[in-house]
């Protein structure tokens, strides 16, 4: 990475279209990653692509993904080294962009695409920190307010690491780009904003009455 | 497909874990697909996976994706035949599942994974119907209330088709599955629901004052 804190573009992180929407700025990439917790993990199995939704955490310039030691991509990343080529994509949808013409309809979004090779995390301290990061990524503050994994649980959980090196973000904002000759058409034009909204927390049936709702929950 | 309207499981749509969360029911699959509009498209380029967010539409048992004729996966699907092996995944997050133990934290979600080979759509009537389906998938009713693509726009737009054949859905609902010995721990436990919520439509600056907000917008 350059001193400007920018990911170096590579051939595959260079957009072929809408290049003005691309950014390699580290701070922007981290902000997009940190405001989501679900990614889509792509890998190749028997020559064909597989895309699965999964949670992730970030620690510095590393992404961590986890799963059962029995899960296919986690097994594949573990054996044999040198790891599993993956693509991890994180997308926020921010709005539906309605143009007068069908052609110019679009979506406002923020997206990060990470290419690289995932490696298993076996060192206990890194693995434990990765699992904390995964829990805290979903709900900051939650890792410290839950029982940490015991030896059996840690043994049943595989963690893989993906370094943030070959990374790009793509962002679209703003209204529709209608053709000048379409402006007089009688179709509504604009943006319908959309965002994930959290509802009221639903306590477990067996939750003791004296356990208050934690502040980090209300903060969502 | 069987008479029971169920997608036939294959080796790669058979889950290795949490099999009770899998379903191959056609109606369930269609409902998950129809309540989203963004998918993550996976394909293989130079042996490595690529995952990109993109819009889709559904017509019967076919998914349609589109993009610029210059976009890489659309070019790859078009030449050479017999098409591009893809995996298309659609995921809804419905809630954050907070267990007393870090290990049992989870996500409530609905997800559909489609494996198959994408083929270019070149027949004009199918292509036009596919583009209408794409617009209407984002906002039902919108295709009829926008200017259809002209010859130049249609020529600049590539459409690919993916048959729904090798398909699985995976669904998690309900509260956390805490270990019996963890129930007395002093940690809040339950579910934080989450759903996409649409804000007030933002008209384009250049929208004529006499164009009312359409009913299909308010319905979101």
In words, what does this structure look like?
Two copies of one chain form a homodimer. By secondary structure, chain A is α+β, with helices and mostly antiparallel strands. The first copy, chain A, has one domain (11-177, 200-218): Electron Transport, Fmn-binding Protein, Chain A (Pnp Oxidase, Chain A, Roll), CATH 2.30.110.10. Chain A is 19% helix and 38% strand. Chain A has five helices and ten strands. Chain A has a six-stranded antiparallel barrel with strand order 2-3-4-7-6-5. In chain A, strand 2 (38-45) and strand 3 (48-59) form a beta hairpin. The longest helix of chain A has 15 residues, at 124-138. At the A-B interface, strand 2, strand 3, strand 5, strand 6 and helix 3 of A face strand 2, strand 3, strand 5, strand 6 and helix 3 of B.
